[in-house]
Write a structure and sequence with these properties.
Length: 827
Amino acid sequence: MSVTAFAGYTLTFAEADPADVDRLGGKGAGLARMSQQQLPVPPGYIIGTPACRSYLAQNRLPDGLVEEILHRLDDLERASGKVFGGGPVPLLLSVRSGAPISMPGMMDTILNLGINRASALALGTATGDSRFVADVVARFHAMYSETVLGALDPGAGVDRVVAGVAADEDPGVVYDRVWAACEQALAQDTGDSVPADPRDQLMGAVEAVFRSWNTRRARTYRDFHAIPHDLGTAVVVQSMVFGNLSDDSGSGVVFTRNPVTGEPGLFGEYLAHSQGEDVVAGTRTPDPVVQALAPTVLGELRSTCAALERAQGDVLDIEFTVERSVLYLLQVRAAKRTPEAAVRIAADLVDEGTATRPAALRTVSAAQVRQVQRPGFDPAEIAAARDGGRLVTTGIGACPGQVSGALVLDPDRAKARAEAGEAVVLARAVTSPADLHGMIAARGIVTATGGSTSHAAVVARALGTCCVVGAGELHIDPAARILRAGERTLREGDPVSLDGSTGELFAGAFAAATPAAASGALDRLLAIAADASGTEVLSRVTLPSDVEPARAAGCTGLVTAIDDVLAATGHLDGLIAHLLAGPTREDDEFERFTDLVAQELTPILARAGELEVGVRAIDLVADESRELLQQTAVTTRNPELSLPLGRRALVEAQLAGLSRAVAAAGGTARVHLAVRHISDPAEARLLREIAGESGIPVGSYLTSPRAVQAIEAIATSCPVIWLEVRSLQAAMFGLPPRLLLTAEPLDGYLRRGLLALDPRTTLDPSVHRLLTGVPAVSGPARVGVRLAGEVSEAVVEQLYRLGFRRFAISTPETRPLVLALGRAATA
Ligand code: ADP
Ligand code: MG
């Protein structure tokens, strides 16, 4: 029978193209691939997803499908030398669901299909075991009743009948007795009957698998995982093998490596004398594969798993059955794994030569790297806490992170407890420079007042500390050591948990995964990624103690901002007071400022050693620090400070401070100073002129579309150019850039469908156009991209494709960025 005579709904394992997962489903594609690799897969064929879609649309099997299925069945009989519904060797089938996107356990599968009196008799004669026949008959009847006919209870009476069968009884008599018992139980339950003709059974099973695409649980699963509802499922029709045949038979599931820790070595379970459903059903406890399998079978499973890993370049989850000591593979798919395991496995696969770098990098996401290095809460635990009334209040998420710790209401006590080794969450009505030591010591910071540009928010972001601000319900009494929110009272020392993205404060601690285990593997993986992308990544630091963690994260350089440094060391207020005090003598007006810049930058440069350090000049109109900088008052008093180079002396003071810091740090530091918001070549020329006297390379953080359009001319004067993606996105949307730093209110706005794309996670086409060709800009300028907030893999890939190879990012997001760049480079 040639393929072309068919309507083309079906394909055998041998014919199917394993890459065509949309048509074959994941299960069918995996079986086709394995069987084409000459691995031991029971023969079978696949009814593709188009047939399912047609069935669901018309509510009946598409024309020609029945004929095609029967033709395939003839082929299968011929190929296996077995007979469907007869003997001497009966062909029994499994009819299995398998969607293009894995939906484990959501849809139906029917085993042992093809049972009638003749095949039962033949089965008994072939095996000489009527107990086995009884088991298979009862299993089939129960599964068909449940799956196709919607029966609820296969009938307790059946078990007794099956248990009473002797091995040497006449199989025909056994069939009659068991079938009758099954039918009686079903009739009581549904009034229905299982067809006696195996071909009718097959059609009933195929339809049932099609229908199982639309069960409530399958729909719910797809909604939750954002899987489209119109894909449909494929159906695999496959010759049965019997793990329930004898003691040297059984079934199992094995991961090619430990999916929890990533450790190499087979990890899985095996249940002797069983069919696959028994392992899942949990009625008997399976044994570890390495102990339970006979040595020869285990050896074969080992070598098969290794070959499959090499062929697919990934860790796999394999369902198998052993029939009389012969191994059969029944399913293969990429294994689900913890973030820790994902990292370890990817690194190991490359080191062993099992996977190529691109293949290994494909298996780990930036989000997993983030989770491994910065443990987060279990989403289920958060949901349970919300439902359980543990949510104390919700403020504005100002700096992401999920931390638990002891609640402390005073910065001195926070510092003391942290020094004693305790994790601390500092809660204040509002923070000021007087709180800095406590803020630096705390794992999390929460305030009752202030917005996302307040002191607490700006300093927390500079420190990379999880922070929630503006939690207005909180009443904090540091002297009484009590925090009230509505009806609830918390005492200092009580465990609390903070989510810096959602702004939620919970009572009680959450378990967070410990990041330690995978760190060696993480370093190896990131080295692979860094090597693949060949990019520079500069990490943002604010305090000298930030330099080591940045270096450990794999940065190739550092960036810092003078406003952040002064805010985090408590010196910003002096400058602001000075600016508010009014005109002073021109020549030495910023002398104190110069001293502070020199004093605070020296230790950072000293620690940086050979690492390049990019310094951003103070930005008195920075949208993300409005409250902290008292912008309205400062710019009312000094209107020219709204312009990048409006007050030359301010830039000179910073250059002078930086020069002194370089000298004090030994004179070898590689530094530059960048002034934000330049948009005109004339400004760039003036900046170069100002810098000429200092010898420090200068440049700008470009924040406007106009500046990007003039980038070539600006770069002619200034060797240092940074593009601020967040500001450019905000400019194109006409939104304040600070909005892109927090979850709300933008999340809610997006949920209402009022913006076609999220400016935090996707480059707007207008920005994409603007940046096209920019990396090719000539001259000495090296154009870098400054990223803010959580790394979006989509944005990183877009930027990499555009040709950008130099990036700046916060320290906690350095590793996710390095990975994302490696993935972008090998995509
Ligand atoms: P699910 O998608 O829920 O995992 P499967 O189609 O994989 O459902 O079937 C579940 C189990 O049924 C398999 O793990 C295997 O143990 C058993 N099974 C399926 N097909 C066969 C077969 N041809 N021979 C023996 N057992 C099978
Ligand atoms: Mg399965």
